[in-house]
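Note to self: keep these together.
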Amino acid sequence: MNYADTHIHLEQYHYDQIEKLMAEAKAANVKYIVAVSMDLPSSQATYALAQRYRSTIMPAYGFHPEQPLPRAEELELLMQWIRVRAAYKERFAIGEVGLPYYRGLELLEQGEQLDKQPYIELLERFILLAKELDRPIVLHAVYEDAAVVCDLLQKHQMKRAHFHWFKGDAATIDRMIEQGYFISITPDVCYEQEIQALVKRYPLELLMVETDGPWPFEGEFHGRETESAMVVRVVEAIADIVGRDVEEVAAQLYHNSNQFYRFE
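Structure:
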């Protein structure tokens, strides 16, 4: 059985951790890894990793929304740098981009209100860039933010969208299914009822798996360093939830990842 980790912040690991993670991923038949980025320096670090592990890593370049907005010149440098990568015919995705749901919650707890409009405008620029360059887009958009992102995707007729570690209401889920948007499932499917219910509801043909490392997980993963090889356990959990043979589920999820990211 082959696997793909469709979302990990690989550049956030130390050098020796990356060596170990990549070796263990290979041993577990994790054939491809989508390494996402936070900003321009992060994108450049991800690019270097993709050059080092050319046959395995698909890089994604963007600006993570759970941080202060970039300065205008910083954003322009990032956009220009991404266009240069495209000019060299390199394979990559746009991401991680989206809306700052958790940052908004943190500010609310401090008695402040986050103005999301500038983040919406920033995301729209990345959606337009992804469409211009014909690249998949990796999205950070949960709960009510997901509906806003769906509006933007439909406005620009952007279909090749991947919502990572998605959570949301039934209406948004149905809308995403109708549009054919992909979502990816993390190791928390082994212990989070909300994610287990999502797996039951979402078509297997639109599912992928991820780790979002180095983010740590609980349950059986408590105290363990998050690594791409954990997607094997995620696939097993999904197979158990949908009541299908694990080999069949693994093959479908791998096919989905390859279809979306065009690894091969």
